[in-house]
Amino acid sequence: MRLQAVLGRVVALAVLICSIVGHVSAQQGTPRSPGWAVGPQYDTTHIYVSAADFDRFVASAIATLGGTASKRGSFTVTPTASETLSQLVLTPVGSLSVFGFKTPIPYPFGSERTGYLVKDLDGAVSAARANGADVTVAPFADPIGRDAVIQWPGGVGMQLYWHTVAPTYGALESIPENRVYVSPDRVASFLRSFVHFAGGRIIDDEPRAPGVEIGRPKDVFRSIRVESRFGRMLVLVTDGHLPFPYGREITGYEVADLAETLEKARGVGVAVLVDPLQSRGRTSAMVQFPGGYIAELHAIVTR
């Protein structure tokens, strides 16, 4: 009887230890969700074109992707003196913030790639810093709210922004991909920092993705897909030996019919840099809009 009692205590203790270890492991393996994000329709690709190309770019983007644009204005959107044309383009497949500076662009603006709307700017900036980001532009006021620019390990820059009056945009028909190129040396640090900050998760990590997706059909590379309330991110881990235009695109847009979209694009002066190719369940192409903006367009292959 004493032996049974001792064994019972040992089993109970083992169960308790396993429960504690499992709980801790689960906490370590699952990023906490701080809830900074508002939604993927509020993530905007930051597009810098010359003032001379501004209207032509906006018109070509709407003709190709659909949607509407806000009223064009001329503003100061940096913490130091500057002036830019600015317009928001809301398409069914992603939002675009377009800038056409009339003055020289203050450093480091133009390197931030994307803007993410957050519920609390100061809280989000503090969390980004705590997760390893550099705050390259401290929070500052703009005409409609506040902004900051941060940079993640691996050199990935983005803007965090907050509006005085909360914006209301309709849900997207498809969520775009923030396409991030990172070196093998920094990818672990980047993922650890960004995924934890965003409360996201890695949904796919393919160590031998087809190199045709980065213009190198004889090779393979590592491809990682991340999802969070901020939206989708595709992390492309490469050695930097990239043929043009790979690495120059910031965002990938999912369209319903790629051939039809490319036909619309060509009709408004958009150049097709890489003809459609099929890989891993989708067909994709690379295009360049008037003004120089390069984007990836893709459609899911139906079976």
Give an account of the 3D structure.
The chain has 303 residues and is an alpha+beta fold. The chain is built from 5 helices and 17 strands. It folds into 2 domains: 124 residues, 2,3-Dihydroxybiphenyl 1,2-Dioxygenase, domain 1, CATH 3.10.180; 124 residues, Roll (2,3-Dihydroxybiphenyl 1,2-Dioxygenase, domain 1), CATH 3.10.180. The strands form 2 sheets. Strands 1, 2, 3, 4, 5, 6, 7, 8 and 9 form a 9-stranded mixed β-sheet that branches. An 8-stranded mixed β-sheet has the order 11-12-13-10-14-17-16-15, with helices on one face. Strand 15 and strand 16 form a beta hairpin. Helix 2 runs antiparallel to helix 5. It is globular. The N terminus is likely disordered.
Cα radius of gyration in angstroms = 22 Å
- Strand pairing plus helix content: what structural class? alpha+beta
CATH class of the largest domain: Alpha Beta
Instruction: Please name the CATH topology of the largest domain.
Output: 2,3-Dihydroxybiphenyl 1,2-Dioxygenase, domain 1
Q: Runs with pLDDT <50, length 5+?
A: 1-8, 10-31
Count of helical regions: 5
CATH H level of the largest domain: which superfamily? Answer: 2,3-Dihydroxybiphenyl 1,2-Dioxygenase, domain 1
What number of domains?
A: 2
Give the N-to-C terminal Cα separation. 65 Å
Give the ordered list of helices and strands: HEHEEEEEHEEEEHEEEEHEEE
